[in-house]
Write a structure and sequence with these properties.
261 residues, alpha+beta, Alpha-Beta Plaits, 2 domains, 6 helices, globular
C-alpha cells in the first residue's frame, strides 16, 4: 500500500469550505467519496489546512494511503474523472508513512485578487473583490510591508483554541498588478482564522485613508483592535503549501500549525 501526497485545486464558490461538515457539500467530503469508489478504506484524508466557505485553492495538499496497482498518472486520471468540474488533482507524489501535510509544512502562501471598476463585473466577481475608486498601489505596498516579521496578529484574526498563541511570522507580503487586477501575495509559517481576509480589508482601508499608519502600526506591534471588517472570501486562494527538503520535527504547539485563513 502506498502513501500519496496530492496537490488539489478547487473553485470554492459552491463548497461550504474544505473540511467535512455533516451532509453539506465540502471539498473533503466530495474528495473522500471519490476515493472510496477507488477502494480507499481509511477513515479520513489528511490535509494541509482548512479553507473557509467560498475560498479557492490551487495548492491544497491532501494525503492518504491506497492500494493502487496501476501507476501514479493513472491514479490522477481516475480521481479527476470522478471529481466534479470545480475540483481537480494537479500533481501526485509518494511520501513516507509518517508524513503529515499540516504539521510538516514550513509555510503557506495565499493570493487575494481585487478588480477596480465602477461597475460590478459578474465574470470577475467569482474570484475577485470589486473596488472603486482605484486604490493607491504604492500605499498598499507600504502597508503590506509593515506586516512582515513575527508579530502578535490578534488584531487580524483569532486562534482556534482559547488561550492559544496569536503570534505568527509573515515572510512575504506585497501587492502587484496582473491582467488589470491587483493581487496581494502573503506567505507565513501559519495563519490565524480569517487573518488573510482581515489583512486585505485593513490594507484597503489604509490605502483609502480610513486607517492611519499609527493605527496600523499599533494593530501590528501592539495588537490593538482596528476598524472591523473582512474582505470577501471569493477573492482568496490558497496557492502553495511549502515543505522543507528534510522533514522537520513536529515539536511545538499543533494549533499554531493549524491554518484557516
Amino acid at each position: 500500500m502506498a502513501r500519496y501526497q496530492l496537490r488539489l485545486a478547487y473553485d470554492g464558490t459552491q463548497f461550504f469550505g474544505f473540511q467535512r461538515q455533516g451532509n453539506t457539500r465540502t471539498v473533503q467530503s466530495v474528495f473522500e467519496t471519490v476515493l472510496r469508489e477507488l477502494g480507499w478504506q481509511e477513515e479520513a484524508i489528511l490535509f494541509a489546512g482548512r479553507t473557509d466557505t467560498g475560498v479557492h485553492a490551487a495548492g491544497q495538499v491532501v494525503v492518504f494511503s491506497l492500494e493502487w496497482p496501476h501507476g501514479d498518472e493513472k491514479l490522477i486520471k481516475a480521481i479527476n474523472a470522478k471529481l466534479p468540474e470545480d475540483a481537480a488533482v494537479r500533481e501526485i507524489h509518494r511520501v513516507a508513512a509518517d508524513f503529515h501535510p499540516r504539521y510538516d509544512a514550513a509555510s503557506r502562501s495565499y493570493l487575494y485578487r481585487i478588480y477596480q471598476h465602477p461597475q460590478r463585473d459578474p465574470l470577475a466577481d467569482r474570484f475577485a473583490w470589486q473596488q472603486w475608486p482605484m486604490l493607491d498601489l504604492e500605499r498598499l505596498n507600504h502597508g503590506a510591508s509593515l506586516l512582515i516579521g513575527k508579530h502578535d496578529f490578534a488584531a487580524f484574526g483569532r486562534a482556534m483554541k482559547p488561550g492559544a498563541s496569536t503570534f505568527r511570522e509573515v515572510r512575504q507580503s506585497h501587492w502587484g498588478e496582473e491582467n488589470g487586477q491587483l493581487q496581494y501575495f502573503i506567505e507565513a509559517n501559519a495563519f490565524l482564522y480569517h487573518m488573510v481576509r482581515r489583512s486585505v480589508y485593513v490594507l484597503v482601508q489604509f490605502a483609502r485613508g480610513k486607517i492611519s499608519e499609527v493605527e496600523l502600526c499599533k494593530g501590528i506591534e501592539e495588537a490593538i483592535p482596528m476598524k472591523p471588517g473582512l474582505a470577501p472570501a471569493r477573492g482568496l486562494s490558497l496557492i502553495e503549501v511549502s515543505y522543507p527538503l528534510q522533514k522537520s520535527s513536529r515539536k511545538g504547539d499543533e494549533e499554531i500549525l493549524d491554518n484557516i485563513a
